[in-house]
Amino acid sequence: MKIYLVGGAVRDKLLGFHPKDNDWVVVGATRDEMLELGYKPVQNNQGTGEFPVFLHPETNEEYALARLEKRKGYGHGGFEFDTSPSITLVDDLKRRDLTINAMAFPFEEEKMGELIDPYNGKIDLENRILRHISPAFVEDPLRLIRTARFAACLDFEVASETLELMKQMVIENKVSELSKERIWKEMERALMGTHPENFFDVLKKCNADRILFPYIKIPGSGIKAMQRAAEHKNSAQVRFAALMLDLTQEEIIKFCKQFNVPNQYRDLALLATKNLQQFQRLPELEAPELLNLLTNMGAFQNKDRFNECLHVFECYTQESTYIEKIRHAFEAANSINTKELSSQYIGREITRRMRILRVEAIQQYMNFELEGPRLEMCRVDK
């Protein structure tokens, strides 16, 4: 029985990253032997037959028996496993998607041995290329969207021959076999990549965008805004909302329902889309209108969400002066003492008085902003 560190953990180590998880392959062992050693079997939610993956009794890391896969059914999980002890490490690595994910380190006497690289993954890693290992790549539709995600997270190019296989998968309508939850999971991970625009660019190149994301314009102003959000290291929710700004409210709702997008993503996207047009009119707004905008953006109820929305606007419009102005207006309006009002008025009168005072506070800020440059000009003239 031999144990090897494989897959993404090896790739990340070679790239100089700290792997989030370690994946191990066990060669020359049987299921019964793994159970006797105290390994806990992982529930089978994919494929058919007994799932050949186990959790280490102490570290809880995944250890998989070396295996071959044979397509037997529909979708990403439609595979039958062969886990004969005679299956070699090279056999196991060949079933993987990309060469950069088909490398291994032997684990002997508590230390790593020399790199095992039967499919030249290290060369592709150095050249920043995403390349399939074998024609069996087309058997699993998840590989198409994973490749696009790797392009976003690693900023790698897809090999031309791999792109041709991806186009073939689209023509054969294999993309429709993917679950909406898995599509969203890959998209969410791509959003947090250094170049999330690559995810959509790759999908467009293989024509999968028309099937998966017909509402999203590629390229488009939403893609560019999402790219800026990534450059600013904004959250995944801000990046998603920036991407959605090309869509209508109805399209956002349909998109989020289709892929079971979490509510916090959907709500920020809808909030930004609803208020973008008014935000772009900021220089024209009078104090009452500016207060309406702050209220509609939920600034007084959820300051964090308000700030996230401003990040979205800044990435889309690139108007940093607008952002500064609306922040100062909010600070002015939010300085009103609500407890004091509550002690002096009751019912609707509190709301009415609050609005009057907030408008006055915003107007004072706007007057100061207007007079400031004039005063500076006077000083220069003197």
From TrEMBL:
Which residues does UniProt call coiled coil? none
Q: Does the keyword Magnesium apply?
A: yes
Q: Which UniProt keywords apply?
A: ATP-binding, Magnesium, Metal-binding, Nucleotide-binding, Nucleotidyltransferase, RNA repair, RNA-binding, Transferase, tRNA processing
Domain (tRNA nucleotidyltransferase/poly(A) polymerase RNA and SrmB- binding) ranges: 155-216
E.C. numbers: 2.7.7.72
UniProt enzyme class:
transferase
Q: Which domain of life is it from?
A: Bacteria
Residue ranges constituting the Poly A polymerase head domain according to the UniProt record? 3-131
Q: Which cofactor does it need?
A: Mg(2+)
Stored Pfam families = PolyA_pol (PF01743), PolyA_pol_RNAbd (PF12627)
Task: State the similarity comment.
Answer: Belongs to the tRNA nucleotidyltransferase/poly(A) polymerase family.
**The name this protein goes by in its record:** Multifunctional tRNA nucleotidy
Gene that produces this protein: cca_2
